[in-house]
Amino acid sequence: MSGVVLILFAMIMFIAAYRFYGGFISKKLSVTNDNKTPSHTMYDGVDYCPAKTPVLLGHHFASIAGAGPIVGPIIAASFGWVPVYLWVLLGAVFIGGVHDYSSIVASIRHKGKSIGQIIENYIGQKGKKLFLLFAWSTLILVIAVFTIITADTFYAIPSSGTSSLLFMILAVGFGLTVYRYKAPLWISSVIGVTLLFFCVYLGNIFPIQLSRETWMLILLAYVFVASVTPVWILLQPRDYLNSYFLYSLMLGGIVGLFFTMPAVHLEPVTNFSVGKLGYLFPALFVTVACGAISGFHSIVGSGTTSKQLDKETDARIVGYGGMLIEGVLAVLSLLSVASLDQQHFLELLNTKGAVAAFSTGIANFMHNIPFLGIQTEHAVNFAALAVSAFALTSLDTATRLSRYSFQEFFEVKEKDNQNILVKNRYVATAITVTFGAALTFSGQTMAIWPVFGSANQLLAAIALLALTVWIAHLKLNYLFTLIPMLFMFAVTLTSLVALVYSNLLLQNFTLTIISLLLFVLAVILSSQAYQVLRRNGKEEAFAK
């Protein structure tokens, strides 16, 4: 099988899916520009402010991508390339795209609030509290883990630390240029992207040597600032400019793929059970994550993205389109190692890790582009820098999202009675970052991380559950969210049972308890949603 055929088929399928299935969802949810979005009706210049479509797509894509669509498919390729490829194609189109797009639309129809608010409206306040507590705790774990990962990267590769600091300064300049001085977006983008790559050059000349602990403190201070600063001046422009890193990497990889013409030598299917990963079901669907569906996307979509959406119709390109672009990246990641035979692939994965395997494969593709003339070593460094840049993007976005979850948790219906935790973003952010810092320096972060995969997909299942109940309330056919929701609950609950069993055997009682709590949360919320759907069904039958 040719890698070129696989990437072409995936891209054609995604384009068709955007046109037809994306259009189907738009009609189902009555997406129209006649409805004003919260970025206009609730404009505050800090969280709620309209963004141009390319800018918001870049911000959203950079926020949801991270290293997930790169690492997940490569690790899951231990099961063989066919299961991964099929899951990315089908998952991105029929589950992940639906999840992301519908989450944004539902949020803008509820004043830019999170999935938690939708749960409160249609399932109950207790369900909202449980979901927001779960989401906030998961995001705190993300903050801690990505603080450690990013600090380790900056410590090991000092030039990346310099470049990232320069990116932040550049982002502020870009934000002021576009929003304050009203410069044309295309001119600002050309200059901004040029300076972005110049920052990489300066980073290599002036690397900053600091300890891991110092970098952690700097990063925690940065995410505090990023969470409270108006989104248009730092977070949004930094993500937008950073997205060009990944666009460039994807474009170089795809073009290089056509010049390299690699054959796929990985085994189509290996075994139903693979080492530490476990059984194909549910491990494949938890491991691939962002390349097909990720609960984190619904938090981003109903968090930062919905508050910046200029027009309702932008939700399709940002939500559904952003997920399909991520699907292309996942396929490209798979093909970056697919030319290896199974033995060499596993050796590379186990010795150097998924990011190194991806960087090496993409570098080989880019090296074979005759008119580019890039050396393999430089291409490897560029790919690694792009991945590390998105780890920082996930970190600052997660902090802002956790602040939103924290504030929504303490909201009351009477607007005049909101307490300081809701009204003051500085206090809410300080508490959030303090918890993130405590976990970062606790030494327990990476021990808890293995449960994140299941927690992340549980977020997706619960988001689909909330969307299903909302759509049922609108008296519309909800099968397009119900079926994905049932599948994701099957994946999540099976995965949690497996985690409880395996950690009991290892006497890891911390992960056992966390897994049990997540299982109970899933059962409670699904039970409450079932009662709501059943009640709606009876009301419809009675009305007929």
Radius of gyration: 22 Å
Order of helices and strands: HHHHHHHHHHHEEHHHHHHHHHHHH
Shape: globular
Find the structural class using helix and strand composition: mainly alpha
Strand runs, count: 2
Compute the average pLDDT. Answer: 90
The CATH architecture designation is Up-down Bundle
The residue fraction in helices comes out at over 70%
Q: Which strand-content bin applies to the residues?
A: under 5%
Catalogue the unreliable spans: none
> For the largest beta sheet, what order do the strands appear in spatially?
1-2
- CATH class identity: Mainly Alpha
How many helices? The count is: 23
Main beta sheet: 2 strands, antiparallel
Distance between the termini: 55 Å
CATH topology: Amino acid/polyamine transporter I
Overall tally of domains: 1
Describe what you observe in this structure:
The chain is mostly helical and 544 residues long. The protein has a single domain (3-40, 89-543), classed as Amino acid/polyamine transporter I, CATH 1.20.1740. It has helices at 3-28, 38-41, 53-65, 68-76, 81-108, 115-122, 125-156, 158-180, 185-205, 212-228, 235-260, 280-287, 295-305, 314-338, 342-352, 354-367, 376-409, 420-423, 425-440, 445-448, 452-473, 479-505, 509-543, and strands at residues 273-274, 278-279. A two-stranded antiparallel ribbon has the order 1-2. Strand 1 (273-274) and strand 2 form a beta hairpin. Helix 1 packs parallel to helix 5, helix 7 packs antiparallel against helix 17 (376-409) and helix 7 (125-156) packs across helix 19 (425-440). The longest helix has 35 residues, at 509-543. It is globular, with a radius of gyration of 22 Å. 54% of the residues are buried.
